[in-house]
Specification:
heterotrimer; A mainly alpha (132); B mainly alpha (277); C alpha/beta (229); A: 132 residues; mainly alpha; two-stranded antiparallel sheet; C: 229 residues; alpha/beta; three-stranded antiparallel sheet; 7 helices; 31% helix
Chain lengths: 132, 277, 229
């Protein structure tokens, strides 16, 4: 697991985003154990203090929880999980909208294109899955 | 203390190879010298007897018999001693400079050891002393062995057997290295140790201040030597030999202790406050 | 905490440090960056009393450096610091002999981590492996502070990656690390704090996450601003 961090956003923010993406896509399941801060630092090649900071923020946001001295786990709270999903979708849509707006395309045209593109991409993914 | 002994051990290991070479050269050269010189002497005797084998007694009387101190005057015998003295003299400098110069920078390690830095100084000083004593002891052990070799080769009526002391007595320079009494031993080697310590301090001046340090070092060395020999100098120049020799010796011992203490303190100061890698 | 307070140093007439002040915390990685060579190494030498300073003060956990401090702080220079004739095992034994805080188990772990062979002679090592041995000899000490001079310079990319891995691993533990570099790219995400130095003065001292969070700048952005002013 090697992330490509950008150099201008705080690394801990990027780590949290990375976790949210994995939660939203189901790569990390509710209740799943997550690496210790030292393991995470090692896996992502980041400063252990930064990993600590990211976990602390995630704990505060309710994304992860820690029981006694056990390893931390992904939350099972459905409400938090759906918020994460919504947040990610919203973020993606926002950035898409702002780039589309900047080239002045009418909404109808955009939606048509999105639908066609989305279906094609999904088919390709399915096709790849079949071959595998 | 413990780390000081470890440092001495470490420094000794570093010169082990050179040391073995010095001992081997001394051994080979002197033994070869004794054999060669003895055979050469026999050859001369035989030549004198040629044509007249009955004349052995006359020949013996006309030629002075061989004694061991003649052997000690040959180059093969004195050479290795000079080489050893030179090696030790050079090593007094090399033992420091090897840690700064060259590919490695071992001085970092030495200066960052969790022990007083003056222990590095003492360890190097001890190493020089041990090296010297070792060479001297080896030479002393070698002498009777070499005399035996001469006795094997040269028949009894052609040689004079002398004691080691008698041999050394006839060789003034060797007497400095192998003193007659324990007191002299302490005085000779005590003086030697102080001189090496002063040279070490000179080196530390140079290592601390580089070019300027050479000047400081010379000034320091000059003052130290003046102080060290002040009893003798005062007696000769000011007091018109007023003092007895035994009194001078006593004052010299006091002067030696003072100079040694100053040199150790100065080296300690340079090593902790002024030294650079 | 290591505190450097208004440290001044001259080499002859040349002023190398003109009143340098900064701090380095335990449990953090502080990076001294200078685009022009001089000064950085001198600071590390001064902290470990390997070179005298003209004025100023250096405190390690509130104390001036003394002989016992070397069980607490270690400097790893950018050069071979063991005798070339030694094997790695000899060098480790030397450290074990002299330091109470030598951790043999950690040393063995580091040998594996760096894929080094104990029987190899120091003189036969590649530049990368020499740097790794240097690091090993420092990291295997249970010291609180480690100073590393240019641990990434002049070695191959894989050795660089391996050394960078050390910083994110348990081998650093809760220690305070000061490293010098003139090249930030390899370690931008690894460091807590940056001290920018030029011409013997500290131009800026900042925490990397704070500068990203509050100003949206990368370390290189800040360097560009500071050095090209």
């Amino acid at each position: 697991m090697k992330l490509n961090f950008n150099n201008r956003d705080p690394v801990y923010v990027q780590v949290i985003r990375h976790f949210k993406e994995q939660i939203a896509t189901g790569l990390l399941e509710p209740g799943q154990e997550i690496p210790s801060r030292r393991e995470l630092a090692n896996q992502l090649k980041i400063n252990p203090n930064t990993a600590q900071r990211a976990y602390k923020e995630m704990e505060e946001q309710g994304l992860i929880y820690t029981e006694r001295n056990l390893p931390s786990r992904i939350t099972k709270d459905e409400k938090v999980l759906s918020i994460v999903r919504e947040e990610l979708i919203l973020q993606a849509v926002n950035s898409f909208v702002s780039s589309v707006q900047s080239i002045n395309v009418p909404l109808e045209e955009v939606i048509e294109l999105v639908r066609a593109n989305y279906e094609q991409a999904s088919e390709e993914v399915r096709g790849q899955d079949d071959r595998n | 203390m413990n780390r000081y002994i470890k440092l001495v051990n470490f420094e000794m290991n570093r010169i082990a190879k050179l040391y073995v070479v010095l001992l081997a050269v001394t051994f080979v050269s002197q033994v070869v010298g004794v054999i060669y010189f003895s055979k050469h002497f026999l050859k001369q005797v035989n030549e004198a007897m040629t044509g007249n084998p009955q004349n052995r007694q006359e020949v013996i009387e006309s030629m002075s018999p061989l004694s061991f101190d003649q052997v000690t005057e040959t180059l093969l015998f004195v050479g290795p001693i000079l080489i050893s003295i030179t090696a030790v003299a050079f090593y007094i400098f090399i033992i420091w400079y090897r840690d700064w110069l060259g590919k490695n920078t071992f001085v970092y390690r030495l200066l960052m050891l969790p022990t007083a830095r003056i222990n590095v100084f003492f360890a190097k000083l001890t190493t020089i002393l041990l090296m010297t004593f070792g060479l001297v002891a080896f030479q002393l052990m070698l002498l009777p062995f070499e005399m035996k070799i001469m006795q094997w080769i040269v028949p009894k009526d052609l040689r004079i057997d002398a004691s080691i002391n008698a041999v050394l007595d006839r060789f003034v320079e060797l007497r400095i290295i192998f003193p007659e009494s324990f007191i002299e031993f302490i005085l000779h080697y005590g003086l030697g140790t102080i001189i090496v310590a002063i040279v070490f301090t000179f080196i530390l001046f140079e290592r601390s201040f580089r070019w300027k340090g050479i000047i400081f070092g010379f000034v320091y060395g000059f003052i130290a030597f003046m102080l060290l020999f002040s009893p003798v100098l005062l007696n000769e120049l000011v007091l018109n030999s007023y003092l007895y020799p035994s009194e001078i010796v006593l004052l010299e011992v006091v002067a030696g202790i003072i100079v040694m203490a100053c040199t150790v303190w100065m080296s300690h100061y340079l090593l902790t406050k002024k030294i650079r890698v | 905490m290591i505190e450097i307070k208004d440290v001044k140093k001259n080499f002859g007439r040349k002023k190398v440090l003109k009143g340098v002040s900064f701090t380095a915390e335990k449990g953090e990685i502080t990076c001294l960056i200078g685009i022009n060579g001089v000064g950085k190494t001198t600071i590390l030498n001064a902290i470990t009393a390997l070179t005298p300073i003209q004025s100023g003060e250096i405190l390690i956990d509130g104390e001036k450096l003394h002989k016992g401090s070397y069980e607490k702080i270690m400097f790893i220079p950018d050069a071979i610091t063991m005798l070339p004739s030694m094997r790695i095992a000899d060098a480790m034994e030397f450290m074990n002999d002299f330091y109470d805080c030598w951790n043999e188990a950690r040393a063995k772990e580091l040998l594996q981590f760096f894929k080094l062979k104990e029987s190899d002679r120091i003189s036969d090592l590649s530049k990368g492996n020499t740097a790794k041995v240097n690091l090993l000899l420092g990291l295997a000490l249970d010291v609180d502070y480690l100073l590393m001079d240019e641990p990434f310079s002049g070695i191959d990319i894989f050795s660089r990656e391996q050394i960078a891995d050390v910083f994110t691993s348990h081998l650093i533990e809760e220690r305070g690390v000061i490293i010098t570099t003139h090249e930030i790219n390899d370690i931008e995400h690894l460091i807590d704090k940056v001290v920018l130095i030029d011409e013997g003065v500290v131009l800026k001292e900042f925490r990397t996450e704070e500068i990203r969070e509050n100003e949206g700048k990368s370390v290189v952005d800040v360097m560009r601003e500071v050095y090209q002013k």
